[in-house]
């Protein structure tokens, strides 16, 4: 039986930028093991499977798989899946509501001159600030010196709005560019609070990389060792929520444009919004543009559908 899929590049307006995503549109009847095998075959950071919703009023159940395991929530899979579904719809929806293991994920559809250009998600969980990690250990994970970790706003620690990451601020763009994952340090640090990844960023952004206000990178376990993600929406939303919580502003909307993937040759732009009221985070959002890439079919041996 043939199964249809579409791939898109997420958080970019052009092909071969951003973070690739595969969206399998008709996975009914597939087992979890089969979904995992398909995700490993695509070998993207994530693959999504769009199933009928479990409850009326929702648009789809979305299951998200890395090459290694299923995860409860992720950023670029939600943005890319919403872009694909809205682009395929006879009448473009203003919003989609996805059921995921982390909870309900609302996704706004971004349009320009009547054309779907991207999407913006709302994080499914409030910001959680979890375990701290020493400056020395965080630096070791990135093959940097402790002096290259910046702690004036926050120490390295695990944060989450649905999927946990170790968040680390660096002192310079040069340190960000020079960072490399260290497997031994990762093994000593993770798993921690169900996290196995480091999201690290700097406020030291050169004029040539504007309108970015931050530049970021993310290291995580891939199919064959540690690898780098060109755009990580879930970590970006968590980082934006953390920075908004630390901001002296008590009410209103805090926006950031965050670059990622620049040092990989896959530049990505992630647009964040965080709403605060009486000093508390009300909601965290991340969105961006998408570029369609491929459409095709796949076959599974023994698939009798």
Question: What features would you highlight for this structure?
Answer:
globular, 305 residues, single chain, 8-stranded mixed beta barrel, alpha+beta
Structure overview:
The chain is α+β, with helices and mostly antiparallel strands. The chain has helices at residues 32-42, 75-88, 135-141, 173-178, 183-189, 233-246; strands at 2-10, 19-24, 47-51, 60-65, 70-71, 95-100, 103-112, 115-122, 128-132, 149-150, 157-160, 165-170, 198-202, 214-222, 225-228, 252-260, 268-277, 280-299. An eight-stranded mixed barrel has the order 1-2-3-4-6-7-8-18. A hairpin with a 2-residue loop joins β7 and β8. α2 (75-88) crosses α6 (233-246) and α3 (135-141) crosses α5. It is globular and about 55 Å long.
Q: What would you call the structural class?
A: alpha+beta
Number of helices: 6
Q: Which word captures the global form? A: globular
Low-pLDDT segments, ≥5 res = none
Distance between the termini: 6 Å
Biggest pleated sheet: 8 strands, mixed, barrel
Assess the beta-strand content as a share of residues: 35-45%
Oligomer status: single chain
Order of helices and strands: EEHEEEHEEEEHEEEHHEEEHEEE
**What's the arrangement of strands in the largest beta sheet?**
1-2-3-4-6-7-8-18
Helicity level, as a percent range?
Answer: 10-25%
Mean pLDDT, rounded to whole units? Answer: 96
**SS elements, strand count:** 18
Rg, alpha carbons = 19 Å
């Amino acid at each position: 039986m043939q199964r249809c899929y579409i791939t898109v590049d997420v958080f970019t307006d052009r092909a071969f930028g951003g973070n690739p995503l595969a969206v399998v549109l008709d996975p009914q009847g597939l087992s979890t093991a089969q979904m995992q095998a398909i995700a490993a075959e695509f070998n993207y950071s994530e693959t999504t499977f769009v199933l009928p919703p479990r409850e009326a009023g929702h648009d789809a159940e979305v299951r998200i798989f890395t090459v290694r395991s299923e995860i409860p929530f992720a950023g670029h899979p939600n943005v890319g899946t919403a872009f694909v579904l809205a682009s395929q719809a006879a009448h473009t929806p203003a919003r989609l509501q996805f059921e995921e293991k982390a909870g309900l994920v609302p996704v706004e559809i971004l349009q320009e001159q009547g054309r779907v250009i991207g999407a913006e998600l709302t994080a499914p969980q409030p910001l959680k600030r979890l375990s701290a990690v020493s400056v020395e250990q965080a630096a070791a994970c990135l093959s940097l010196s402790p002096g290259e970790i910046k702690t004036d706003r926050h120490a390295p620690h695990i944060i989450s709005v649905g999927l946990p990451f170790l968040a680390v601020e660096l002192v310079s763009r040069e340190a960000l560019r020079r960072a490399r994952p260290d497997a031994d340090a990762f093994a000593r640090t993770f798993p921690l609070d169900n996290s196995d990844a480091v999201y690290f960023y700097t406020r030291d952004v050169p004029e040539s990389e504007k309108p970015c206000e931050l530049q970021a990178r993310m290291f995580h376990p891939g199919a064959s060792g540690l690898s780098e993600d060109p755009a990580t929406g879930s970590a970006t939303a968590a980082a934006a929520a953390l920075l908004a919580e630390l901001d002296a502003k008590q009410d209103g909307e805090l926006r950031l444009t965050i670059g990622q993937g620049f040092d990989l040759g896959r530049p990505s732009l992630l647009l964040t919004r965080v709403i605060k009221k009486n000093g508390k985070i009300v909601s965290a959002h991340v969105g961006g543009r998408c570029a369609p890439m491929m459409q095709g079919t796949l076959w599974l041996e023994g698939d009798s559908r």
